[in-house]
Description:
The complex is a heterotrimer. Chain A is mainly α. Chain A has a single domain (2-349, 416-445), classed as ABC transporter involved in vitamin B12 uptake, BtuC (Orthogonal Bundle), CATH 1.10.3470. Chain A has helices spanning 2-7, 11-50, 55-85, 93-108, 122-144, 149-167, 170-179, 198-201, 212-221, 228-255, 258-268, 270-275, 280-304, 316-329, 334-349, 351-363, 372-380, 385-393, 395-413, 435-438; strands at 190-191, 308-309. In chain A, helix 3 (55-85) runs antiparallel to helix 13 (280-304), helix 3 (55-85) packs across helix 14 (316-329) and helix 16 crosses helix 18. Chain B is mostly helical. Chain B has helices at 2-15, 17-38, 56-86, 94-114, 120-124, 134-137, 145-171, 179-201, 225-247, 249-259, 261-266, 271-297, 304-319, 324-340, 350-364, and strands spanning 41-43, 49-51, 206-207, 215-218, 221-224, 299-300. In chain B, the strands form 3 sheets. A two-stranded antiparallel ribbon of chain B has the order 1-2. In chain B, strands 3-6 form a two-stranded antiparallel sheet. In chain B, strand 4 (215-218) and strand 5 (221-224) form a beta hairpin. In chain B, helix 4 (94-114) packs parallel to helix 8 and helix 9 (225-247) packs across helix 10 (249-259). Chain C is of the alpha/beta class. Chain C has a domain at 68-95 and 105-128 and 193-288: Rossmann fold, CATH 3.40.50.300. Chain C has helices at 2-15, 29-36, 81-89, 111-116, 134-140, 150-154, 159-179, 195-207, 225-240, 252-258, 276-280, 283-292, and strands at 43-52, 55-65, 70-74, 96-101, 104-105, 119-121, 213-217, 244-249, 261-266, 269-274. In chain C, helix 5 (134-140) runs parallel beside helix 8 and helix 7 crosses helix 8 (195-207). The longest helix of chain C is centred in the middle third of the chain and has 21 residues, at 159-179. The termini of chain C are far apart. The model of chain C is unreliable at 1-27 (pLDDT under 50). Chains in contact: A-B, A-C. Bound molecules: adenosine-5'-diphosphate and magnesium ion (MG). The site of adenosine-5'-diphosphate has 11 residues of chain C, from strand 2 and helix 3.
Amino acid sequence: MTDDVDADKTAPSVTEAVRAATADISQPVRDVGLIVGVLFGVYALFAVFVFNQGLNSVVSTLRVVTFFIAVYAMLALALNLQWGYTGLFNIGVAGFMAVGVYTMGILAGDPAGSPPGLGLPLPFAIVAGMAAAAFVGLLTALPALRLRADYLAIVTLGISEIIRLTLNSGALNSWLIETVGIGTGAGSGMGLPSFSARGLFYVDGSTANQTALAEVVFAVTGPLGIRESVVIAWAYVFVLIVFVVGFYVLLARIGNSPFGRVLKSIREDELVASSLGKHTQLFKIKVFMLGCALMGLAGILWQGSQGFVSPNSFMPIVTFYVFVALIIGGSGSNTGSVVGAIVFVGLLFEGPRRAGGALSDALAFTANPNTSWEALTLVVSGEPLALFAYATDNISALQFVLLGVVLIVLMQKRPEGLLGHRNETAAAVPLTEQTRSIRGGESDEQ
Amino acid sequence: MGLTNSIELRELWETRRSVVLLGLFALVLCVDLLARLAGVEVGLTDSYSFGGALSLTRFGGLLWNGIVIGLIIGLAGIGLSMTYSILSFANFSHGDLLTTGAFGGWAATYIVAAVGTIELGSLLVVRAAGSVSPADIGANIVQTPFAILVGIVVAAAVTIAVALVIDRLVYKPMRDRGGIALLIASIGVALALRYIIQFIFGSRNRGVTDTTGVRVELVGISVNLHQLTLVVAAIVLMIAMHLMLQRTKLGKAMRAMADNKDLALVTGIPTERVVRATWVIGGGLAGVAGYFVVLDRGVIGFNLGWFLLLLIFAAVILGGIGSIYGAIAGGLVIGITYNVVLIWIPSDFNEAAAFALMILVLLYRPDGIFKGVTTA
Amino acid sequence: MSSDDVTADALATDATGDLSAPPESQDSPVERAAATTPPAVPLRVTNLKKTFGGITAVDDMSFSVESGSITGLIGPNGAGKSTTFNLISGALTPDSGTVYFNGQDITGLRPDQIATRGMVRTFQIARELPEMTVLENLMLAPKNQIGETLWRSVLPGVRGSVIEQETELREQAWETLEFFEIDHLATNEAGTLSGGQQKLLEMARALMTDPELVLLDEPMAGVNPSLERKILDRIHRLQEDGLTFLLVEHDMDVIMQHCEHVIVMHQGRLLAEGEPDTIRSNERVIEAYLGEDLE
Lengths: 446, 376, 295
Ligand SMILES: Nc1ncnc2c1ncn2[C@@H]1O[C@H](COP(=O)(O)OP(=O)(O)O)[C@@H](O)[C@H]1O
Ligand SMILES: [Mg+2]
């Protein structure tokens, strides 16, 4: 009945209502479309770089790209929970990842290995790694979350560096091995139980004994010239994608809930939140711990697949990468976090390297200057390509310059991210205009 | 009397528990240090003992190294502290200004020291590649004092120019934005600047100074003349800084801005001029500090400033953000801590110890340890 | 821990020699409250003091607010009214003095603890949550939201009860918006509202906490006359429903017409207190207002 009343309203408000309703329904669909669209755009770009090397090479390249997209998407989502939702400016992401990875590595490591581990079951070690990251998050959060955002930034960066230096310490490693019987491997790193999807394809790890899945998949990929190892590596990437979806759903649920509403209110104005009866400190601690646990998990899934970890994997630059990914997409938005990770990995992280390689292959430079000065003199003496040759040789430096410039330009021109200002509903129920008409009867509270 | 005393102590304990604990900890360390210097040792367990043996020479050496690096950090910290309070953001690219000064200054020193004898290419890029050795160039304070002096001046000039350009391009369009937006932009600046330097000068860490004849006996003590030069120059610069702040109109305006930006705006101090002066002084001192890092260590690399950044932050926070004298004092505390803790902990941890000190200060004395003592 | 604080603060108050403070005793807070504060006085502050550096913003303020009343707190700019609110609501901790809410010492409690007990405040300069919609602003406020527990919001299976409560809250939010006649703005981001609308939003949001006592800091400042009438009308209607108001207002006339009881502050101190008529004719009040206020 109330619907009829609504339909009698003036035309503009009806169309507005319809538009709002469809917008609400199709928003997730459009977001998935956006993510897939950007992803395939990046794929197309990479396919161009390596198409002449055959299908196996293309598929293998796309796997590497997708792998990094997945791990940076997870990290960006975890950071989005802390910074985007709650406004907690944590630039110690790398440190919390390190805690997760090393805890996992020590617990699951081979007791006879070097450094020795405890040999506990892997699932337990992974959960413990997340718990340890959350615990270090708690230790950081308890005193530090009442600090101003810029002080929190310095504290978290400091803690992340302390963690890295500690793991890098030879003295600590030998002391640990002597007294506790486990170690960190210090600067030379630590072997990790390698995560792989091999088990899905081979029974007992023997290539001769394929599973049913393997027979089906290889029957398709084999004739296309795609190697089995590439397929197996892709399978692990699919596992990562499942985790990205899991992170996304978790964050979306948090965002669309009273809990998430409090987080956003803390980001907007903490005093208001607390004046309305919210124990903001508690919310901040919970969110910080959860975010750190997710960072730990992302680190574990990343480093675990490489079978080895060293403190060098946790330089502050990794944290900045995550920030760039999140800022590109738009801090505060989950879809933005994923899109940002795709754009970051595609255009800033993997892209320049591949483009440099492709360019130097295509142009086949004759000059090979060792220093910028040599390059410059060669250019002056009539060899303009020398500068290109030097640039492609030093593409990694230029890549960082590009990264820095992108960060500056984004902060100046588009701090809300590429997707622009987005607002994801901070409630477990829709809050559109029509929800007024769904209201039942005249249940006056007063 | 006794009662009020114990009440006061209890209150102190209850309100500032962490500070009291920290103070006690520091006291124990001091006593332990004295015991070690006196050669007293009290065994506690098998592997731990209180006191021990520490030669006065080793202690003196650590202290001296601490002062040297502390002055460098303090010099660099002045600029960071000023930009932090006047422009209201934590500048994460400050470390890379040191690197800028180091490369700019040493390229100049090399050219003055060896142009004509060594081909220009090697000198300009500070031995980025090739077979020329530091000894071939022979840049040091004994053989080429003038080249060093030119290097210091050029280090300052280049860094000032770079800092002003960056301010114009990056920070000026963002003046009205919040501290976090500027902080993130400064991370972008840090990356861009560091890797432009790497692109130009290469990624290799390499020796720069020629050390022949640099270590001499002065009044019976072995002294590194490079360190001595650095210490004297740093002190001169700091005194000049002090006079500028106290005596000149600009200096007073800067102190007012550092204290309270809004107030300064109301009273009509030309803000943009003060901002520019801040970059000139802060950038210049950072560049000189970068040059000195290389003079002290003898090695240059594109990462040198970035690796010092957190220590500089530590000094600034310790001294109280906005306080110039605090930055100097904080630099000395950090530099000395960084070296003297080696008495107690392995060298893999001294950097971590300095960071930990910084974090503790941020948590419990966010206005710095000298709060209420200094005014500028 | 909090009961320790209560005792310590009571002792501190006694030490300053205040006779009206609760007698030194180890009674439970409830008993002490029964003995000292009649239940009809939800808010009572004694000897409140706060200094900022050299400025004493609030100095030895003592007053109480009667249940069901609209009590006015007036004084020239800088008199210390907002600071008093901050001290009462827990945004600032007083240097000395005590705040009693429903007979319980709440001095030094966190703002959220005080709000949860049923005292909510608004801000002089509206503090909307700019990037949240008006409805989200309102739905933030209610107490006892089960969905504020992380696992209930996230785990599949238990979210049903959260959605149920959210539906109720949304209903209540719509009603409150209609009451304040800003329901047409429900889906707008709060940052896009005009100043007057933001004032209404703040009041609506405060009411969503289902408070007993509402502290309003200049709710009519910078608001056009018709909106001012609307706000005053709503305050009276809520008073009829049993709410108590402490209203800071700059404008004497408003206070005189709408409050049963008036407290006048001047330079951080209590200048006068009483019924509007007696205040109106109080020499010292007139002097203070003539001296500093041009309105
Ligand atoms: N956070 C603060 N820091 C320093 N001074 C303050 C602060 N808050 C208020 N004051 C000062 O306290 C005095 C009282 O201010 P306030 O309570 O806002 O007055 P009112 O609300 O009556 O206009 C003023 O002199 C003001 O400048
Ligand atoms: Mg006020």
